[in-house]
Write a structure and sequence with these properties.
The complex is a heterodimer. Chain A is of the alpha/beta class. Helices cover 45% and strands 11% of the residues of chain A. Chain A folds into two domains: 257 residues, NADP-dependent oxidoreductase domain (TIM Barrel, Alpha-Beta Barrel), CATH 3.20.20.100; 63 residues, no CATH class. Chain A is globular. In chain B, a hairpin with a 3-residue loop joins strand 5 and strand 6. The chains are: A alpha/beta, B alpha+beta.
């Protein structure tokens, strides 16, 4: 048996296919499109002051390894795709560009630069455009800025130059600290879009910051919408619970939780396969209800007592002088990543005085976690394992 | 026995820390600020969304050090992964497949302002700035760091399964070909398509995966390759031929028009253990 070719113009590693193949792909494309999936239901929102109408489910391409998944998402109707100069050492942009080439004109495409000065940022942009095979980006983000100072005047100037040159349509900034960056950008008025971490495990202050951004007509794009608690962590020893939650639809529930916030305009969950794409598409059609609420509550119960977020917001100090956050981190090495030796080694580095303390000797713990980590139980577990 | 274990632990820790710590491996360079360590919990602080690309391979920790020589800056990042295959997988995912592969550790590359290689459980990435051409400096650092790191210098055995002529072989940590049942495996890029191999735990589980895929792609046609096989055309995967040989699942996808998938698959199957 011989084969007709798929419509992909590049393989994921960037190998150019013959033009004849590309022509043949086009011939069969539309005929096959109708039969490839039942039509999903889409919802759209306007991306703030950009005026762009985007699907509430976008596509974070950063860990996708097969271009076919991205191409199918575009064929089905998702219209917001996100990548970055740094993803997969630069290979990601090349794959995304190849996957979206046929539909580029009808899509909203964003990329990012982590450069810290104007010259390098603009050089990154030129590389992004070349690798993506496009003459412009719809949104170009300053990548990973967690304090207003990092959004420097010269980086903003780089975005303005890029706009004037027609290389970008809109300027954005991505952040893991929405509570700081969104209000700052709302005040500053130089950005069109902010890309923020946002999920059900966060405190209400994040939602308030996002609301403030929406009121200032910033486009709001949410990332990390599934929360880190879903991440595969070999050796954690809790895979049974996690798998049960996943099967029950906790990831879909997490996505729905974000979409129910009308201040969020689109989301960019990363997707690695066709099944995940199909599951996520359901988030646009199905409401967030009591079942989802229950699932996420169980998920929060699952991750909250165990994992220190290293936020530094613990109330009180240990009466016996224990460096609580450090010890909890070392415990995570062992229970989170299966690295017992590393956890113990780091714990012992804290010194004999720390190793000698036993939480069981104290009547009441003086340290409380605002996120509900069971501090005493976790410290006792560390002492049991390491001391 | 305990003493031996402790010694080995210290040896491994020392080799890891030393690699990221010492900027003086090349003449005139010195540390610019303290070294930093990132784990899976805080890698986002350093790599932002790019962190996910590390975590998916089985990331343990990263030692980060910036070095300086005059106006030039060099960043040394040494990542410890769960195992050597994961380190090679990260290297292969991040390297530029258009550039030549160099014999550094399990594999490496040196570009004008960036170098990378994998050795043992470690993936090393060096980035120089602000100039355009740093290859001589990167070579010196790469050679010295490679000597310091312990572990395997031979690439994963899976690479030898693929027939010659590929431009790159990558470890796909999740959903090979974008298909969830193909959990983790290697993909080799050829000018006329992609070859892949997924290793299942048992022949039974491999047969179950194959059966699930056969149900998924209605209209697939039986083929005579290894224990069982079928072939089909798909809008997103192009021409596909998938076979099972014991607990291995392998085959070709994205095949061009006119390419004989079955004969290619037979050759691949014959190279599997």
């Amino acid at each position: 048996m011989t084969y007709r070719s798929s419509r992909r113009s590049f393989l994921t590693a960037g190998v150019v296919l013959p033009l004849t193949g590309a022509t043949l792909w086009q011939e069969t494309a539309d005929r096959q499109a109708a039969s490839s999936a039942s039509a999903p239901q889409f919802s759209y929102r306007v991306l703030g002051k950009t005026g762009l109408k985007v699907t509430t489910l976008g596509f974070g391409c950063m860990i996708t390894s097969d271009a076919g998944v991205i191409e199918r998402a575009a064929d089905l109707g998702i219209n917001y795709f996100d990548t970055a100069r740094g993803y997969q050492g630069g290979n990601n942009e090349r794959m995304v560009g190849a996957a979206l080439k046929r539909k580029r004109a009808s899509l909203v495409l964003s990329s990012k630069s982590g450069a810290r000065d104007k010259q390098r940022a603009l050089a990154d942009l030129d590389t992004s455009l070349r690798e993506l095979g496009t003459d412009h980006l719809d949104v170009w983000y300053l990548h990973g800025k967690n304090s207003p100072d990092e959004v420097s005047d010269e980086l903003v100037e780089a975005q303005q130059i890029a706009k004037q040159q027609g290389k970008i349509r809109f300027a954005g900034v991505s952040t893991h600290d929405p509570k700081v960056i969104v209000p700052a950008m709302a005040r500053k008025g130089v950005m069109d879009v902010v890309l923020v971490t946002y999920n059900f495990s966060m405190d209400p202050g994040v939602a308030a910051a996002i609301e403030q951004g929406n009121k200032a007509r910033l486009g709001i794009v949410a990332m990390k919408v599934m929360a880190g608690g879903f991440r595969e962590r070999p050796g954690r020893g809790d895979s049974g619970t996690r798998e049960k939650l996943k099967r029950a639809g906790a990831m879909l529930a997490a996505l729905k939780w974000v979409l129910k916030d009308r201040n969020v305009h689109t989301t960019i969950p990363s997707m690695t396969d066709m099944d995940q794409l199909d599951e996520n598409l359901r988030a646009m059609a199905e409401p967030y209800g009591a079942a989802e609420e229950k699932l996420l509550a169980r998920q929060l119960d699952f991750i909250t007592p165990l994992y220190c977020r290293m936020c530094g917001e613990c109330t009180g100090m240990c009466a016996r002088g224990l460096p609580v956050a450090d010890i909890l981190r070392h415990l995570t090495y062992t229970e989170g990543y299966g690295q017992f030796a590393l956890g113990r080694e780091e714990f012992l580095k804290l010194g004999p005085a720390v190793a000698a303390v036993r939480c069981a000797d104290c009547e009441r713990c003086t340290v409380q976690c605002p996120f509900g980590v069971q501090v005493t139980a976790r410290l006792r577990r560390a002492q049991e394992l390491f001391a | 026995m305990k003493a031996v274990k402790t010694f080995l632990l210290i040896l491994v820790a020392a080799s890891f820390a030393g690699a990221a710590d010492d900027c003086r491996l090349a003449s005139g360079w010195k540390p610019d600020g303290p070294s930093r360590t990132f784990t899976a919990d805080d890698l986002y602080e350093y790599l932002d969304g790019g962190a996910e690309g590390y975590l998916i391979f089985g990331f343990v920790r990263l030692e980060h050090q910036t070095c300086a020589k005059g106006a030039d800056s060099l960043v040394i990042d040494v990542s410890e992964m769960n195992d050597p295959d994961a380190a090679y997988g990260l290297f292969a995912a991040r390297r530029d497949p258009r550039q030549p592969l160099r014999r550094i550790g399990m594999g490496g590359e040196i570009l004008p302002n960036r170098a990378s290689f994998a050795k043992g459980k470690y993936y090393v990435e060096l980035t120089a700035m602000p100039g355009e051409e740093y290859r001589p400096t990167l070579r010196v650092f790469t050679v010295a760091l490679e000597k310091r790191l312990t572990g395997r210098s031979t690439p994963p055995g899976a690479l030898a399964w693929f027939p010659r002529g590929h431009t790159s072989v990558r470890l796909i940590p999740r959903s090979v070909l974008g298909l969830r049942p193909l959990k983790r495996g290697y993909v080799a890029e050829y000018s006329n398509g992609q070859a892949f191999v997924v290793t299942e735990a048992t022949a039974q589980s491999a047969a179950a995966v194959l059966a699930a895929l056969r149900r998924r792609f209605a209209g697939a046609k039986e083929a005579k390759v290894a224990d069982e096989a079928f072939e089909f055309n798909d809008r997103y995967l192009g021409g596909v031929c998938i076979f099972r040989k014991g607990h291995y699942l392998g085959g070709y996808a994205h095949l061009h028009k006119g390419t004989e998938g079955v004969s290619l698959a037979r050759t691949l199957a014959s190279r599997l253990p």
